[in-house]
Specification:
The chain is mostly beta strands. It has three helices and 13 strands, in the order E-E-E-E-E-H-E-E-E-E-E-E-E-H-E-H. It has a seven-stranded antiparallel beta sheet with strand order 10-9-13-7-8-12-11. A six-stranded antiparallel β-barrel has the order 1-2-5-4-3-6. It is globular, with a radius of gyration of 17 Å.
């Protein structure tokens, strides 16, 4: 479980196909503190397990399944790309964002990304039909960043970004047309499931 509060941006060192899985190597610093093999790390909002760590080289390695690669923006990774990093929530830790599971629902695509006044306006389209998970003032995780939905337009939504968010996340390197990982609010998905089950049982 995560909170959507990015601790640092790391850089992709390599993302290559191995015998059993894809191997992702990331250069980082903050999240290396206290890291143990087997720990969960959210990379662009996707929960992965650390399988190797080289503190001297400031590198962490992860195995990535083909299914994960297919459902995320990992397929576009190139050496040097910025990625958002967050360690899993510790008991008694701060919950500054919202509960984020690290299980990506699918990709979104940046439609608009521009300055409006002193802040940045970001509009993202989602897969057809997924607009039902979006509500104004609700929560959304974009590349693992906990954000508040400002507008909903069918299967698209918009958020406002303060300068700090751009400074500490990979959004500063994003542009129109690029894919981002999305995780919709967990509560909304559970409500949909429960209401669907109720309709079936009373039919």
């Amino acid at each position: 479980m995560f909170t959507g509060i990015v601790e640092e941006t790391g850089r992709v060192v390599e993302f290559t196909a191995a015998a059993d899985a894809w191997r992702l190597v990331v250069e980082a610093s903050v999240i290396l503190g206290g890291l143990a093999i087997g720990d969960s790390i959210a990379i662009n909002g996707c929960c992965l397990t650390a399988v190797e760590s080289d503190a001297a080289a400031s590198r962490i390695s992860f195995d990535v399944l083909e299914e994960t690669r297919r459902l995320t923006n990992f397929a576009a990774f190139l050496p040097g790309d910025l990625v958002n990093l967050e360690r899993s929530l510790a008991m008694g830790g701060k919950l500054g964002g919202h509960f984020v599971t690290g299980h990506i629902d699918g990709p979104g695509r940046i439609e608009t990304f521009e300055m409006r006044g002193a802040d940045h306006y970001l509009k993202v389209s989602v897969a057809p039909g997924c607009g039902r998970y979006l509500i104004p003032k609700g929560s959304i995780a974009i590349d693992g960043i906990s954000l508040t939905v400002a507008e909903v337009d069918g299967d698209a939504f918009a958020v406002w970004l303060i300068p700090h968010t751009l400074t500490v996340t990979n959004l500063r390197a994003r542009s129109v047309g690029q894919a981002v990982n999305l995780e919709f609010d967990l509560l909304g998905k559970y409500v949909e499931k429960l209401l669907g089950s109720r309709r079936v049982s009373t039919a």
